[in-house]
Amino acid sequence: MDLSASWVWENPTNVNTEHQNNSQGGMESLQTDSRFEDNLKHSEDEHYPEESLVQIPHSSPMTPVKIKRRMMRLQRRKARAAELVQQNKETENHTVSAAIERSKGFDTTIKGKYSIWRKEYENPNSDSTLKLMRDQIIMAKAYSNIAKSMNKTVLYEALVKHSRDSQLAIGDAHSDAELHTGALDWAKAMGHVLSMAKDQLYDCILVSRKLRAMLQSTENRANMQRKRSAFLTQLAAKTVPRPLHCLPLQLTADYYLQGYHKKGNVGKEKIEDPSLYHYAIFSDNVLATSVVVNSTAQNANEPEKHVFHIVTDKLNFEAMRMWFLTNPPSKATIDVQNIDDFKWLNSSYCSVLRQLESARLKEYYFKANHPSSLSAGSDNLKYRNPKYLSMLNHLRFYLPEVYPKLDKILFLDDDIVVQKDLTPLWSIDLKGMVIGSVETCKESFHRFDKYLNFSNPLISNNFSPDACGWAFGMNVFDLKEWKKRNITGIYHRWQDLNEDRTLWKLGTLPPGLITFYNLTYPLDRGWHVLGLGYDPALNLTEIDNAAVVHYNGNFKPWLNLAVSKYKSYWSKYVMFDNPYLQVCNLRK
Question: Which parts of this chain are annotated as the region Disordered (predicted)?
Fold first, then answer.
Protein backbone atom coordinates (compact mmCIF):
# COMPACT_ATOMS: atom_id res chain seq x y z
CA MET A 1 0.00 0.00 0.00
CA ASP A 2 1.36 3.45 -0.95
CA LEU A 3 1.05 5.67 2.11
CA SER A 4 1.68 8.89 0.28
CA ALA A 5 1.23 12.47 1.41
CA SER A 6 -1.80 12.83 -0.83
CA TRP A 7 -4.06 11.61 2.00
CA VAL A 8 -5.56 14.87 3.21
CA TRP A 9 -7.90 15.24 6.18
CA GLU A 10 -10.53 17.97 6.25
CA ASN A 11 -9.88 21.23 8.08
CA PRO A 12 -10.99 20.75 11.73
CA THR A 13 -12.63 24.17 11.74
CA ASN A 14 -14.84 23.15 8.83
CA VAL A 15 -15.69 19.83 10.51
CA ASN A 16 -16.74 21.54 13.71
CA THR A 17 -18.87 24.05 11.84
CA GLU A 18 -20.60 21.36 9.84
CA HIS A 19 -21.33 19.41 13.02
CA GLN A 20 -22.97 22.40 14.61
CA ASN A 21 -24.93 23.45 11.53
CA ASN A 22 -25.73 20.12 9.97
CA SER A 23 -25.67 16.84 11.88
CA GLN A 24 -25.94 14.89 8.67
CA GLY A 25 -22.76 16.50 7.32
CA GLY A 26 -21.05 15.59 10.58
CA MET A 27 -22.08 11.95 10.20
CA GLU A 28 -20.77 11.89 6.62
CA SER A 29 -17.49 13.26 7.86
CA LEU A 30 -17.48 10.63 10.60
CA GLN A 31 -18.15 7.87 8.06
CA THR A 32 -15.27 9.14 5.92
CA ASP A 33 -13.07 9.05 8.98
CA SER A 34 -14.23 5.49 9.69
CA ARG A 35 -13.34 4.38 6.20
CA PHE A 36 -9.94 6.04 6.56
CA GLU A 37 -9.40 4.24 9.87
CA ASP A 38 -10.36 0.92 8.27
CA ASN A 39 -7.82 1.43 5.50
CA LEU A 40 -5.07 2.17 7.99
CA LYS A 41 -6.07 -0.48 10.53
CA HIS A 42 -3.31 -2.91 9.59
CA SER A 43 -0.64 -0.24 9.70
CA GLU A 44 -1.96 1.08 13.00
CA ASP A 45 -2.02 -2.36 14.61
CA GLU A 46 1.64 -2.72 13.75
CA HIS A 47 2.88 0.70 14.74
CA TYR A 48 0.26 1.90 17.31
CA PRO A 49 -1.14 -1.23 19.07
CA GLU A 50 -2.42 0.76 22.00
CA GLU A 51 -4.51 3.05 19.85
CA SER A 52 -5.89 0.18 17.75
CA LEU A 53 -7.72 -1.14 20.84
CA VAL A 54 -9.69 2.06 21.25
CA GLN A 55 -13.15 1.76 19.72
CA ILE A 56 -14.98 4.96 18.78
CA PRO A 57 -18.70 4.35 18.51
CA HIS A 58 -20.29 5.92 15.44
CA SER A 59 -23.24 7.16 17.48
CA SER A 60 -21.14 9.05 19.98
CA PRO A 61 -21.41 12.85 19.75
CA MET A 62 -18.53 14.65 17.97
CA THR A 63 -17.33 16.94 20.71
CA PRO A 64 -14.46 19.40 20.07
CA VAL A 65 -12.20 17.35 22.35
CA LYS A 66 -12.81 14.16 20.38
CA ILE A 67 -12.28 15.97 17.12
CA LYS A 68 -8.97 17.33 18.37
CA ARG A 69 -7.84 13.87 19.51
CA ARG A 70 -8.83 12.36 16.21
CA MET A 71 -6.93 15.05 14.32
CA MET A 72 -3.82 14.40 16.43
CA ARG A 73 -4.06 10.67 15.66
CA LEU A 74 -4.40 11.41 11.97
CA GLN A 75 -1.39 13.73 12.08
CA ARG A 76 0.67 10.99 13.73
CA ARG A 77 -0.46 8.50 11.11
CA LYS A 78 0.29 10.94 8.34
CA ALA A 79 3.80 11.62 9.70
CA ARG A 80 4.46 7.89 10.03
CA ALA A 81 3.23 7.28 6.50
CA ALA A 82 5.56 9.98 5.16
CA GLU A 83 8.45 8.45 7.12
CA LEU A 84 7.80 5.01 5.63
CA VAL A 85 7.63 6.44 2.12
CA GLN A 86 10.93 8.27 2.64
CA GLN A 87 12.62 5.11 3.97
CA ASN A 88 11.35 3.19 0.98
CA LYS A 89 12.82 5.77 -1.41
CA GLU A 90 16.21 5.82 0.32
CA THR A 91 16.65 2.05 0.21
CA GLU A 92 15.55 1.70 -3.39
CA ASN A 93 18.54 1.21 -5.71
CA HIS A 94 20.71 3.39 -3.47
CA THR A 95 24.00 2.32 -5.08
CA VAL A 96 22.89 2.94 -8.65
CA SER A 97 24.16 6.23 -10.08
CA ALA A 98 22.02 9.08 -11.30
CA ALA A 99 22.75 7.99 -14.84
CA ILE A 100 20.69 4.81 -14.30
CA GLU A 101 17.74 6.72 -12.93
CA ARG A 102 17.76 9.23 -15.77
CA SER A 103 18.05 6.57 -18.47
CA LYS A 104 15.43 4.32 -16.82
CA GLY A 105 13.04 7.25 -16.61
CA PHE A 106 13.53 8.02 -20.25
CA ASP A 107 13.27 4.37 -21.23
CA THR A 108 10.03 3.56 -19.40
CA THR A 109 8.16 6.74 -20.25
CA ILE A 110 9.73 7.64 -23.60
CA LYS A 111 6.46 8.73 -25.22
CA GLY A 112 5.33 10.82 -22.30
CA LYS A 113 8.74 12.46 -21.87
CA TYR A 114 9.30 13.17 -25.55
CA SER A 115 7.33 16.41 -25.57
CA ILE A 116 9.13 17.60 -22.42
CA TRP A 117 12.54 16.94 -23.92
CA ARG A 118 11.41 18.63 -27.14
CA LYS A 119 10.47 21.79 -25.20
CA GLU A 120 13.78 21.80 -23.34
CA TYR A 121 15.63 21.12 -26.58
CA GLU A 122 13.97 24.10 -28.20
CA ASN A 123 15.12 26.24 -25.29
CA PRO A 124 18.59 27.57 -26.32
CA ASN A 125 19.60 27.92 -22.67
CA SER A 126 18.92 24.26 -21.86
CA ASP A 127 21.49 21.46 -22.17
CA SER A 128 19.13 18.68 -21.13
CA THR A 129 19.38 16.73 -24.40
CA LEU A 130 23.18 16.81 -24.34
CA LYS A 131 23.24 15.61 -20.73
CA LEU A 132 20.71 12.89 -21.51
CA MET A 133 22.71 11.60 -24.48
CA ARG A 134 25.91 11.52 -22.45
CA ASP A 135 24.14 9.57 -19.70
CA GLN A 136 22.72 7.19 -22.29
CA ILE A 137 26.21 6.53 -23.66
CA ILE A 138 27.42 5.68 -20.17
CA MET A 139 24.55 3.25 -19.65
CA ALA A 140 25.03 1.78 -23.12
CA LYS A 141 28.67 1.03 -22.31
CA ALA A 142 27.67 -0.65 -19.06
CA TYR A 143 24.92 -2.73 -20.68
CA SER A 144 27.08 -3.62 -23.70
CA ASN A 145 29.74 -5.10 -21.42
CA ILE A 146 27.11 -7.11 -19.59
CA ALA A 147 25.52 -8.22 -22.89
CA LYS A 148 28.88 -9.34 -24.23
CA SER A 149 29.61 -11.37 -21.10
CA MET A 150 26.19 -13.07 -21.47
CA ASN A 151 26.70 -13.79 -25.22
CA LYS A 152 23.73 -11.61 -26.23
CA THR A 153 25.35 -10.66 -29.52
CA VAL A 154 22.41 -8.90 -31.17
CA LEU A 155 21.77 -6.66 -28.19
CA TYR A 156 25.49 -6.01 -27.78
CA GLU A 157 25.86 -4.89 -31.41
CA ALA A 158 22.76 -2.69 -31.16
CA LEU A 159 24.10 -0.96 -28.04
CA VAL A 160 27.53 -0.41 -29.62
CA LYS A 161 25.98 0.96 -32.82
CA HIS A 162 23.66 3.40 -31.06
CA SER A 163 26.43 4.45 -28.70
CA ARG A 164 28.66 5.24 -31.67
CA ASP A 165 25.85 7.15 -33.39
CA SER A 166 25.20 9.21 -30.26
CA GLN A 167 28.88 10.04 -29.90
CA LEU A 168 28.97 11.21 -33.52
CA ALA A 169 25.84 13.27 -32.95
CA ILE A 170 27.38 14.95 -29.88
CA GLY A 171 30.76 15.57 -31.52
CA ASP A 172 32.37 18.61 -29.90
CA ALA A 173 29.07 20.09 -28.72
CA HIS A 174 29.03 21.82 -25.34
CA SER A 175 25.35 22.78 -25.36
CA ASP A 176 22.08 21.70 -26.96
CA ALA A 177 22.35 24.52 -29.48
CA GLU A 178 25.52 22.94 -30.91
CA LEU A 179 23.98 19.48 -31.37
CA HIS A 180 22.98 18.00 -34.72
CA THR A 181 19.39 18.77 -35.62
CA GLY A 182 18.44 15.07 -35.37
CA ALA A 183 20.10 14.56 -31.99
CA LEU A 184 16.81 14.17 -30.14
CA ASP A 185 15.72 11.42 -32.54
CA TRP A 186 18.98 9.58 -31.85
CA ALA A 187 18.35 9.98 -28.14
CA LYS A 188 14.87 8.52 -28.61
CA ALA A 189 16.24 5.54 -30.55
CA MET A 190 18.90 4.99 -27.92
CA GLY A 191 16.20 5.10 -25.26
CA HIS A 192 14.35 2.21 -26.96
CA VAL A 193 17.54 0.13 -27.11
CA LEU A 194 18.32 0.85 -23.47
CA SER A 195 14.77 -0.10 -22.56
CA MET A 196 15.30 -3.49 -24.24
CA ALA A 197 18.64 -3.89 -22.47
CA LYS A 198 17.06 -3.05 -19.14
CA ASP A 199 14.33 -5.63 -19.65
CA GLN A 200 16.82 -8.36 -20.54
CA LEU A 201 19.88 -7.49 -18.49
CA TYR A 202 19.04 -5.16 -15.67
CA ASP A 203 20.23 -6.26 -12.28
CA CYS A 204 20.86 -3.54 -9.71
CA ILE A 205 23.95 -5.12 -8.15
CA LEU A 206 25.49 -6.13 -11.49
CA VAL A 207 24.92 -2.73 -13.12
CA SER A 208 26.20 -0.81 -10.10
CA ARG A 209 29.31 -3.01 -10.04
CA LYS A 210 29.91 -2.33 -13.73
CA LEU A 211 29.43 1.43 -13.23
CA ARG A 212 31.91 1.42 -10.36
CA ALA A 213 34.44 -0.34 -12.58
CA MET A 214 33.86 2.23 -15.33
CA LEU A 215 34.27 5.05 -12.81
CA GLN A 216 37.56 3.62 -11.56
CA SER A 217 38.83 3.22 -15.11
CA THR A 218 37.84 6.80 -15.95
CA GLU A 219 39.61 8.12 -12.86
CA ASN A 220 42.78 6.23 -13.81
CA ARG A 221 42.70 7.69 -17.31
CA ALA A 222 42.07 11.18 -15.92
CA ASN A 223 45.05 10.84 -13.56
CA MET A 224 47.24 9.74 -16.44
CA GLN A 225 46.09 12.70 -18.52
CA ARG A 226 46.88 15.08 -15.66
CA LYS A 227 50.38 13.64 -15.37
CA ARG A 228 50.87 13.88 -19.12
CA SER A 229 49.65 17.48 -19.11
CA ALA A 230 51.95 18.41 -16.22
CA PHE A 231 54.92 16.74 -17.91
CA LEU A 232 54.35 18.41 -21.27
CA THR A 233 53.67 21.81 -19.68
CA GLN A 234 56.92 21.65 -17.72
CA LEU A 235 58.75 20.51 -20.83
CA ALA A 236 57.29 23.35 -22.90
CA ALA A 237 58.13 25.87 -20.18
CA LYS A 238 61.79 24.77 -20.25
CA THR A 239 62.05 24.92 -24.03
CA VAL A 240 63.39 28.06 -25.74
CA PRO A 241 61.27 28.92 -28.80
CA ARG A 242 63.18 29.29 -32.04
CA PRO A 243 62.61 33.08 -32.36
CA LEU A 244 63.99 33.63 -28.83
CA HIS A 245 66.99 31.47 -29.73
CA CYS A 246 67.51 33.40 -32.97
CA LEU A 247 67.48 36.85 -31.35
CA PRO A 248 70.64 36.57 -29.19
CA LEU A 249 72.50 34.89 -32.07
CA GLN A 250 71.75 37.79 -34.42
CA LEU A 251 72.60 40.39 -31.77
CA THR A 252 75.86 38.70 -30.80
CA ALA A 253 77.00 38.44 -34.42
CA ASP A 254 76.35 42.14 -35.08
CA TYR A 255 77.91 43.10 -31.73
CA TYR A 256 81.32 42.10 -33.08
CA LEU A 257 80.72 42.71 -36.79
CA GLN A 258 79.62 46.30 -36.21
CA GLY A 259 82.28 47.08 -33.58
CA TYR A 260 79.98 47.59 -30.58
CA HIS A 261 82.37 45.53 -28.44
CA LYS A 262 84.75 48.50 -28.49
CA LYS A 263 82.23 50.91 -26.98
CA GLY A 264 82.26 51.64 -23.27
CA ASN A 265 79.39 52.09 -20.87
CA VAL A 266 77.30 55.26 -21.06
CA GLY A 267 76.44 57.26 -17.93
CA LYS A 268 79.07 55.78 -15.61
CA GLU A 269 78.56 58.56 -13.10
CA LYS A 270 74.95 57.51 -12.52
CA ILE A 271 75.63 53.82 -11.97
CA GLU A 272 76.77 54.27 -8.37
CA ASP A 273 74.81 57.39 -7.44
CA PRO A 274 72.67 56.44 -4.38
CA SER A 275 70.38 59.45 -4.89
CA LEU A 276 68.89 57.90 -8.07
CA TYR A 277 66.36 55.09 -8.48
CA HIS A 278 68.17 51.81 -9.03
CA TYR A 279 66.74 48.53 -10.34
CA ALA A 280 68.31 45.06 -10.38
CA ILE A 281 67.32 42.65 -13.17
CA PHE A 282 69.04 39.25 -13.42
CA SER A 283 68.15 37.46 -16.66
CA ASP A 284 69.41 35.60 -19.72
CA ASN A 285 66.29 36.50 -21.75
CA VAL A 286 66.93 39.57 -23.93
CA LEU A 287 63.33 40.06 -25.06
CA ALA A 288 61.84 39.69 -21.57
CA THR A 289 64.41 42.09 -20.08
CA SER A 290 63.65 44.66 -22.77
CA VAL A 291 59.96 44.61 -21.80
CA VAL A 292 60.77 45.13 -18.12
CA VAL A 293 63.03 48.10 -18.91
CA ASN A 294 60.72 49.63 -21.51
CA SER A 295 57.59 49.38 -19.35
CA THR A 296 59.38 50.84 -16.32
CA ALA A 297 60.96 53.72 -18.22
CA GLN A 298 57.83 54.61 -20.17
CA ASN A 299 55.73 54.83 -17.01
CA ALA A 300 58.33 56.74 -14.97
CA ASN A 301 57.69 60.42 -14.28
CA GLU A 302 61.42 61.20 -14.45
CA PRO A 303 63.07 58.44 -16.51
CA GLU A 304 66.43 60.25 -16.46
CA LYS A 305 66.72 59.41 -12.74
CA HIS A 306 66.28 55.68 -13.24
CA VAL A 307 69.21 53.28 -13.51
CA PHE A 308 68.80 49.67 -14.62
CA HIS A 309 71.45 47.18 -13.50
CA ILE A 310 71.20 44.09 -15.70
CA VAL A 311 73.26 41.01 -14.94
CA THR A 312 73.30 38.15 -17.45
CA ASP A 313 75.47 35.12 -18.19
CA LYS A 314 78.47 34.80 -20.46
CA LEU A 315 76.44 33.27 -23.27
CA ASN A 316 74.04 36.23 -23.52
CA PHE A 317 76.22 39.15 -22.38
CA GLU A 318 77.04 40.43 -25.86
CA ALA A 319 73.45 40.08 -27.07
CA MET A 320 72.04 41.87 -24.01
CA ARG A 321 74.52 44.71 -24.33
CA MET A 322 73.97 45.01 -28.08
CA TRP A 323 70.22 45.29 -27.63
CA PHE A 324 70.37 48.18 -25.18
CA LEU A 325 73.13 49.97 -27.08
CA THR A 326 70.99 49.96 -30.22
CA ASN A 327 67.64 50.38 -28.42
CA PRO A 328 68.26 52.58 -25.38
CA PRO A 329 65.18 53.43 -23.28
CA SER A 330 64.25 57.10 -23.17
CA LYS A 331 66.78 58.96 -20.96
CA ALA A 332 67.22 56.03 -18.55
CA THR A 333 70.66 54.57 -17.81
CA ILE A 334 71.51 50.94 -18.58
CA ASP A 335 74.36 48.97 -17.01
CA VAL A 336 74.89 45.41 -18.32
CA GLN A 337 77.23 43.05 -16.45
CA ASN A 338 78.47 39.51 -16.92
CA ILE A 339 78.02 37.29 -13.87
CA ASP A 340 81.25 35.48 -14.71
CA ASP A 341 83.13 38.72 -14.03
CA PHE A 342 82.17 38.47 -10.33
CA LYS A 343 85.35 36.71 -9.19
CA TRP A 344 84.20 36.73 -5.57
CA LEU A 345 81.25 34.51 -6.53
CA ASN A 346 82.95 31.13 -6.26
CA SER A 347 82.33 27.76 -4.65
CA SER A 348 84.43 28.60 -1.61
CA TYR A 349 82.08 31.50 -0.78
CA CYS A 350 78.76 30.54 -2.37
CA SER A 351 76.89 27.56 -0.93
CA VAL A 352 74.86 26.89 -4.07
CA LEU A 353 77.93 26.71 -6.29
CA ARG A 354 79.58 24.37 -3.83
CA GLN A 355 76.51 22.13 -3.76
CA LEU A 356 76.30 22.06 -7.54
CA GLU A 357 79.78 20.57 -7.56
CA SER A 358 78.70 17.75 -5.23
CA ALA A 359 78.21 14.28 -6.68
CA ARG A 360 74.74 13.88 -5.16
CA LEU A 361 73.33 17.00 -6.77
CA LYS A 362 74.95 16.23 -10.10
CA GLU A 363 73.34 12.81 -10.03
CA TYR A 364 69.97 14.33 -9.17
CA TYR A 365 70.13 16.69 -12.15
CA PHE A 366 72.30 14.96 -14.68
CA LYS A 367 72.14 11.19 -14.09
CA ALA A 368 71.61 9.41 -17.36
CA ASN A 369 68.94 7.06 -16.08
CA HIS A 370 66.73 9.52 -14.22
CA PRO A 371 63.08 8.98 -15.12
CA SER A 372 61.86 10.65 -18.27
CA SER A 373 58.55 8.82 -18.59
CA LEU A 374 55.30 10.58 -17.84
CA SER A 375 54.46 8.52 -14.80
CA ALA A 376 57.90 8.46 -13.21
CA GLY A 377 59.30 11.86 -14.02
CA SER A 378 56.44 14.34 -13.95
CA ASP A 379 56.46 14.88 -10.19
CA ASN A 380 60.08 16.02 -10.00
CA LEU A 381 60.39 17.55 -13.45
CA LYS A 382 59.48 20.99 -12.10
CA TYR A 383 62.45 20.95 -9.78
CA ARG A 384 64.82 19.91 -12.57
CA ASN A 385 64.14 23.15 -14.42
CA PRO A 386 67.46 24.72 -15.50
CA LYS A 387 66.58 27.99 -13.76
CA TYR A 388 67.20 26.28 -10.41
CA LEU A 389 70.79 25.61 -11.49
CA SER A 390 71.44 29.16 -12.67
CA MET A 391 73.36 31.46 -10.36
CA LEU A 392 71.37 34.29 -11.90
CA ASN A 393 68.45 32.95 -9.90
CA HIS A 394 70.39 32.99 -6.62
CA LEU A 395 72.22 36.28 -7.20
CA ARG A 396 69.40 38.13 -5.40
CA PHE A 397 70.92 36.94 -2.11
CA TYR A 398 74.17 38.84 -2.85
CA LEU A 399 72.84 42.32 -3.63
CA PRO A 400 75.19 44.24 -1.28
CA GLU A 401 78.19 42.48 -2.84
CA VAL A 402 77.00 43.27 -6.37
CA TYR A 403 76.13 46.91 -5.56
CA PRO A 404 78.31 47.92 -2.58
CA LYS A 405 77.76 51.68 -2.95
CA LEU A 406 73.95 51.67 -3.08
CA ASP A 407 71.63 52.08 -0.09
CA LYS A 408 68.33 50.90 -1.58
CA ILE A 409 67.46 48.93 -4.70
CA LEU A 410 64.32 47.58 -6.36
CA PHE A 411 64.57 43.98 -7.56
CA LEU A 412 62.52 43.04 -10.65
CA ASP A 413 62.04 39.60 -12.23
CA ASP A 414 62.18 39.34 -16.01
CA ASP A 415 58.58 38.07 -16.26
CA ILE A 416 56.92 41.23 -14.95
CA VAL A 417 55.42 44.31 -16.61
CA VAL A 418 55.41 47.73 -14.96
CA GLN A 419 52.25 49.81 -15.48
CA LYS A 420 52.81 52.78 -13.13
CA ASP A 421 55.56 55.01 -11.84
CA LEU A 422 57.49 53.07 -9.17
CA THR A 423 59.41 55.93 -7.59
CA PRO A 424 57.07 56.12 -4.52
CA LEU A 425 58.48 52.76 -3.42
CA TRP A 426 61.79 54.41 -2.51
CA SER A 427 60.05 56.70 -0.04
CA ILE A 428 58.31 53.88 1.88
CA ASP A 429 59.58 53.50 5.43
CA LEU A 430 60.34 49.78 5.87
CA LYS A 431 60.42 50.31 9.66
CA GLY A 432 63.71 48.49 10.17
CA MET A 433 62.83 45.60 7.87
CA VAL A 434 65.22 44.47 5.13
CA ILE A 435 62.75 43.68 2.35
CA GLY A 436 59.40 45.10 1.24
CA SER A 437 57.13 42.56 -0.47
CA VAL A 438 53.49 41.90 -1.27
CA GLU A 439 52.13 39.07 0.83
CA THR A 440 50.47 36.21 -1.02
CA CYS A 441 48.67 34.41 1.81
CA LYS A 442 44.89 34.29 1.65
CA GLU A 443 43.15 32.37 4.41
CA SER A 444 45.13 29.10 4.52
CA PHE A 445 46.91 29.49 1.19
CA HIS A 446 50.59 30.32 0.57
CA ARG A 447 51.74 30.06 4.13
CA PHE A 448 55.09 28.69 5.25
CA ASP A 449 53.85 25.11 5.51
CA LYS A 450 53.33 25.13 1.73
CA TYR A 451 57.02 25.73 1.05
CA LEU A 452 58.94 24.22 3.97
CA ASN A 453 59.16 20.75 5.48
CA PHE A 454 57.74 21.17 8.98
CA SER A 455 58.28 17.49 9.78
CA ASN A 456 61.95 18.43 10.16
CA PRO A 457 62.67 19.87 13.63
CA LEU A 458 65.07 22.44 12.18
CA ILE A 459 62.06 24.01 10.46
CA SER A 460 59.36 23.38 13.05
CA ASN A 461 61.49 24.74 15.92
CA ASN A 462 62.38 27.99 14.17
CA PHE A 463 59.38 28.99 12.05
CA SER A 464 55.62 29.15 12.26
CA PRO A 465 53.71 27.07 9.70
CA ASP A 466 51.03 29.78 9.59
CA ALA A 467 53.47 32.58 8.78
CA CYS A 468 52.37 34.48 5.69
CA GLY A 469 54.23 33.86 2.45
CA TRP A 470 55.23 36.57 0.03
CA ALA A 471 56.53 36.75 -3.52
CA PHE A 472 59.76 37.56 -5.25
CA GLY A 473 59.40 39.52 -8.47
CA MET A 474 59.04 43.10 -7.25
CA ASN A 475 60.86 43.74 -3.97
CA VAL A 476 62.40 46.77 -2.26
CA PHE A 477 65.67 46.06 -0.41
CA ASP A 478 67.27 48.22 2.24
CA LEU A 479 70.94 47.34 1.64
CA LYS A 480 72.15 49.19 4.75
CA GLU A 481 69.91 47.09 6.98
CA TRP A 482 70.94 44.01 4.98
CA LYS A 483 74.60 44.51 5.83
CA LYS A 484 73.81 45.30 9.46
CA ARG A 485 71.92 42.01 9.92
CA ASN A 486 74.31 39.90 7.80
CA ILE A 487 71.50 38.57 5.61
CA THR A 488 73.84 36.80 3.20
CA GLY A 489 75.37 34.89 6.13
CA ILE A 490 71.89 33.74 7.23
CA TYR A 491 71.21 32.58 3.70
CA HIS A 492 74.49 30.63 3.56
CA ARG A 493 73.78 28.90 6.89
CA TRP A 494 70.36 27.61 5.84
CA GLN A 495 71.54 26.70 2.34
CA ASP A 496 74.28 24.56 3.88
CA LEU A 497 71.75 22.85 6.17
CA ASN A 498 69.62 21.98 3.15
CA GLU A 499 72.34 20.29 1.13
CA ASP A 500 70.33 17.04 1.17
CA ARG A 501 67.14 18.94 0.20
CA THR A 502 65.22 17.80 3.28
CA LEU A 503 64.23 21.29 4.48
CA TRP A 504 62.77 22.44 1.17
CA LYS A 505 62.91 21.56 -2.47
CA LEU A 506 64.93 23.60 -4.89
CA GLY A 507 64.19 27.21 -5.75
CA THR A 508 64.78 30.65 -4.28
CA LEU A 509 61.47 31.42 -2.56
CA PRO A 510 61.79 28.88 0.32
CA PRO A 511 65.28 30.09 1.32
CA GLY A 512 64.02 33.65 0.83
CA LEU A 513 61.16 33.07 3.28
CA ILE A 514 63.65 31.66 5.78
CA THR A 515 66.35 34.28 5.28
CA PHE A 516 63.97 37.23 5.60
CA TYR A 517 61.79 35.69 8.33
CA ASN A 518 60.46 38.50 10.56
CA LEU A 519 62.38 40.96 8.38
CA THR A 520 59.71 41.53 5.72
CA TYR A 521 57.60 44.67 5.43
CA PRO A 522 54.20 44.03 3.75
CA LEU A 523 53.50 46.29 0.79
CA ASP A 524 50.04 47.17 -0.45
CA ARG A 525 48.70 44.47 -2.80
CA GLY A 526 48.13 47.04 -5.52
CA TRP A 527 51.87 47.26 -6.08
CA HIS A 528 52.24 43.69 -7.27
CA VAL A 529 49.55 41.42 -8.80
CA LEU A 530 50.65 37.84 -9.38
CA GLY A 531 49.32 34.79 -11.18
CA LEU A 532 49.23 35.83 -14.84
CA GLY A 533 51.42 32.84 -15.68
CA TYR A 534 49.08 30.19 -14.33
CA ASP A 535 45.65 31.52 -13.29
CA PRO A 536 43.21 32.36 -16.13
CA ALA A 537 40.54 33.57 -13.67
CA LEU A 538 42.19 36.67 -12.22
CA ASN A 539 40.25 39.87 -11.70
CA LEU A 540 40.96 42.06 -14.74
CA THR A 541 40.21 45.23 -12.80
CA GLU A 542 42.94 44.37 -10.29
CA ILE A 543 45.33 43.70 -13.16
CA ASP A 544 44.50 47.02 -14.82
CA ASN A 545 45.01 48.93 -11.56
CA ALA A 546 48.23 47.16 -10.52
CA ALA A 547 51.58 48.91 -10.57
CA VAL A 548 53.32 45.65 -11.52
CA VAL A 549 51.82 42.49 -13.03
CA HIS A 550 53.73 39.24 -12.73
CA TYR A 551 53.59 36.26 -15.09
CA ASN A 552 54.80 33.82 -12.46
CA GLY A 553 54.12 30.24 -13.50
CA ASN A 554 54.71 28.25 -16.67
CA PHE A 555 52.54 30.30 -19.03
CA LYS A 556 55.08 32.98 -19.82
CA PRO A 557 53.90 35.73 -22.18
CA TRP A 558 56.63 34.97 -24.75
CA LEU A 559 55.53 31.33 -25.05
CA ASN A 560 52.63 29.85 -26.98
CA LEU A 561 51.40 28.56 -23.62
CA ALA A 562 50.55 32.10 -22.51
CA VAL A 563 47.03 32.93 -21.36
CA SER A 564 45.77 34.89 -24.37
CA LYS A 565 43.74 37.49 -22.47
CA TYR A 566 46.82 38.49 -20.42
CA LYS A 567 49.29 38.65 -23.30
CA SER A 568 48.43 42.19 -24.39
CA TYR A 569 49.69 43.64 -21.10
CA TRP A 570 53.13 42.37 -22.06
CA SER A 571 53.15 42.60 -25.87
CA LYS A 572 52.38 46.33 -25.97
CA TYR A 573 55.91 46.97 -24.67
CA VAL A 574 57.56 44.73 -27.29
CA MET A 575 59.18 46.59 -30.20
CA PHE A 576 57.75 44.40 -32.96
CA ASP A 577 58.96 46.82 -35.64
CA ASN A 578 62.56 46.26 -34.56
CA PRO A 579 64.62 44.73 -37.42
CA TYR A 580 66.07 42.02 -35.19
CA LEU A 581 62.61 40.89 -34.10
CA GLN A 582 61.42 40.85 -37.70
CA VAL A 583 64.41 38.83 -38.87
CA CYS A 584 63.74 36.31 -36.12
CA ASN A 585 60.03 36.18 -36.97
CA LEU A 586 58.90 37.58 -33.63
CA ARG A 587 55.39 38.90 -34.23
CA LYS A 588 52.25 39.59 -32.21
Answer: 11-30
Q: What is the pLDDT of residues 306-348, one digit of tens each?
A: 999 999 999 999 999 999 999 999 889 999 999 999 999 998 9
Query: What's the CA gap between 280 and 402, in Å, rounded?
Result: 10
User: Using CA atoms in the order 40, 41, 47, 48, what is the torsion angle rounded to 10 degrees?
Assistant: 110
pLDDT of res. 309: 97
Residues whose CB falls within 8 Å of the CB of residue 148, separated by 6 or more in sequence, listed in order: 156
**Containing H/E element for 438?**
none
347 neighbors 357 (Cβ within 8 angstroms)? yes
Give Cα 510 to chain centroid, integer Å. 21
224 and 254 co-located in one domain: no
Residue type for 451, please?
Answer: Y
Domain count within the chain: 2
Q: What is the 3-state secondary structure (H, E, C) of 214-268?
A: HHHHHHHHHHHHHHHHHHHHHHHHHCCCHHHHHHHHHHHHHHHHCCHHHCCCCCH
- Kindly give the pairing relationship between strand 520-522 and strand 435-437: parallel
Separation of alpha carbons 129 and 306, rounded Å: 62
Q: Which of 188, 215, 237 is the last residue of a domain?
A: 237
Residue 29's pLDDT is: 42
Question: CA 262, CA 279: separation in Å to the nearest integer?
Answer: 26
Give the integer Cα–Cα distance in Å for 283 and 317: 10
> Which parts of 530-587 are beta strand (E)?
548-550
The rounded mean pLDDT for the chain is 80
The parent domain of residue 221 ranges over 127-237
